Amino acid sequence: MARERLTSQQLEEGLATLDGWQVSEDKLFRQLEFKDFVAAFGFMTRVALIAQSMDHHPDWTNVYNRVAIHLHTHDSGGITKRDLELAARIDGLLRG
Amino acid sequence: MARERLTSQQLEEGLATLDGWQVSEDKLFRQLEFKDFVAAFGFMTRVALIAQSMDHHPDWTNVYNRVAIHLHTHDSGGITKRDLELAARIDGLLRG
Predict the structure, then answer these.
(1) pTM
(2) Which of A44, A45, A57 sits opposite B64 (nearest CB)?
């Protein structure tokens, strides 16, 4: 169930509960900007620990103080409940 | 000097001292594959500490066990001595 691709309606409902995520090429996408590299990489380290504990990992890019995150579920070829869960946990980190 | 763009000859000589780096779109590029996410992110953390100490940071992307690194120097619009230095230190980490 958690690995089944969401319907458009499920995805729309999920997005409404998140902060600043959008859908891009069948992935959840969020772009973040931090004060500097230390802040950006510190954030990534916290996400890495959560991702590992969920056994669900982001595709992400870091350029100095910027982090771009893409979430999708390989097995399903799209966005699943697990992606919404990881996105929500990332939002939780950012709210502090 | 360290922030001056390298000449083709300097770049060629530099590349010859490195492991598995190539030049792509005016950046030094290396693609790495690890056993799993923990190994990949562990490597990234070590690179992050070195990069911060050098005040010279990579552009990089991580997808599960894969890490793609691009090095260039923003100020110079190309590859400088600092990029070769960071690449050499990354190679050093990988040699263990």
Answers:
(1) 0.95
(2) A57
